[in-house]
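The passage that follows is intended for readers who have already worked through the single-chain material. We present the inputs for a multi-component assembly, then the predicted structure in tokenized form, and finally a short commentary. You are encouraged to pause after the input and sketch how you expect the pieces to fit together before reading on.
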Amino acid sequence: MSIVTAERPQAQRPQRQKLSVVDCDIHPGFSTPEEIHPFLPERWREHVKTFGGHYRQAFADTLSHPRMAPEVSRADAWPPKGPPGSDLEFMRAQHLDANGVAYGMLMPLNRGPGNQRNLGYGAALATAVNDWQIAKWVTPEPRLRASIVVTQEDPEAAIAEIEKRAGDERFAQIMLPPRSLEPLGRKRYWPIYEAAVAAKRPLALHVGGINGYPASAGGYPSYYIEEQHTNVQGMQALVTSLVLEGVFERFPQLRVVLVEGGIAWMPALKWRLDKHYKRLKAEVPHLKRLPSEYIHDHIWLTTQPLDEPDKDSDLAETFELVGCDRIMFSTDYPHWDFDDPRFVLSKLTLSPEKQQAILAGNAKALYGLK
Amino acid sequence: MPNSIFGHPAIDCDVHIAVPNTAALMPYLDAYWYDAFRSRGIERTSFTLTGDPPNTPLAARPDWRPKSGKPGSDLELLRSQALDGFGSSIAIANCLFGGMALHSEDLAAVMCKAVNDWVADTWLDKEPRLRASILVPQQSPELAVEEIERRAHDKRFVQITLLAMGNELLGRRSLWPIYEAAVRHNLPIGIHAGGLYHHPTLNGWGSYFLEDYVANAFAFENQVVSLVCEGAFAKFPELKVVLIESGVTWLPAGMWRLNKTWRGVRPEIPWVKQVPSELVRQHIRLTLQPFDEPEGSGRLERFVEQMQSDQLILFSTDFPHWHFDGKDALPLSPSSPLAPKILYQNALDTYPRLTEAKATAAFAPKEISP
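Having made your guess, compare it with the prediction:
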């Protein structure tokens, strides 16, 4: 390479090999729908073949709002065989190696164990998905970390699953859907949080869930674009519930990661919560501090889908308001709204130290990664 | 218009007045409903909205609470505290009455009609600085349009009220006859906080009033997204929508996200040909209070910069609700060039009837002879 080339101003495509990121949102997929069957006990294998899943919505095998791309995925993320995210070799080449992923946190959404109306099937499916993550992904690829998938509507089963996996360091966190039957701050879910604290694992709450409630206070939206946007309100409602119910008073060690909610909504939510808490604190005397203080101490956010103001300086201001020590990078690979670490970073006018914390440092500290 | 305490004229775009009890509506019922209200005990039912309990600290500032009766039920207090207190030349009253949220569209329509007539007689006839909003049964676009047509001749009614947490998302096509009537009569749509026809958030029912109140901001954002994505603004280029008591500071981040998602999936809604934030700038306005920010943090200026428009915010006190103390209704220096825009110019641009009404108020005919 000539000196002239080396001294050119920053190239349009930043060097891939310089990146070393922790990607906090990677979606692993089944190669075929039957891939999970060997991980299920006979009783539930027969069940799923005969009845399939059973959800609180109209459709048995798809989400309520058809997406704008097959499998919600990037057009270039299809491996030679099987759907996006289902082929480890392909994922390595296209994402882990290419984008300098030092660690990747698996977020299996497959079949949504927490969404199952049949709690027995949900619990069996959660166990199966957890075994499958280890067998198919984490054992052959040590950069990946699994999530303990649990069924929040059956806390007993969830706790058993957490205790079963607690000794396995390859499970980095506990995963349940934010759209649960009741807001997650409600007491029915507290035994799960107690188990999470005992297992020293954060809770990872990835947008989604099928709880039977329309996606807004005004009912069902018509379009995917609207339904996708309700993820923002869902995350805010979740934070509001966890804080106001006093979950963090009761569990001072509990740490929560919000995945795929973006971050830019957080400052205004903190302001709103603090302002109206001051007026109405008589209703929530179990709180000892401002809502924003609980939020900063207990809640981490992942970046994707990164909000895009017209001015990049607005984004940098937002990062500072959220707290750069609480933001962790994520891509959502292989989904269509993937945030490419090479380009997302170019929008950030933060100090190199803060950028590094967001890209990797915060996640390494939270998850205890080297 | 004379100057307010802020050194410019002021138009207060959200003050609350209250029907003291359902019995007060009896003179405005026809014979059938008069009998029904009496025989069914409806006249003795308060229809207090779950989102609007009258005794909370939020419902009335201590110095703005009447000695007896509901907050907002005393004309003299409204005069001395809201109008004279801030020196506002005009105040737009919102009289939310729970009857509008009934499942029976017939009964809701009767309630809305009675409240509108009661407001004209009890408030507008007595205080020439007051304007009002037309309550409509949003469960039935047909009956809503009927009520708009019945009331539109009275130019002291300057907008149509719909609820943020209503029966359906407000962009839905079935509601478009309401918008057609609104445009025909130069009436903006005022979406007011509250309703709770359904669960307050997509996570279901939380525990606290505070939680519901905070969630109103989420509901407003869903409504903005619905109006944009369904194409209401493409269909009605003259439609203006005012978000009343919505909180304000959540909007820029909401737009960053919606703009981004729209760029990704716009083929789903091909009738939306402009970036959503541009449509919002053209069609959406917000009343000022409650303004959610850490006190003195200058977020109002930042809001204007981030939304790239100084036309969006309309001064309001939200009297008698408790969002600020003393005269601190304007989170901005009165010498700022933004102050006159926010205090009155934006309101005059938004509500065409504010200038028309002066000429016709004295001639507003009265249809009702109880």
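Commentary: Residues 19-367 of chain A form a domain with the TIM Barrel fold (CATH 3.20.20.140). The two ends of chain A are 34 Å apart (CA to CA). How closely did your sketch match?
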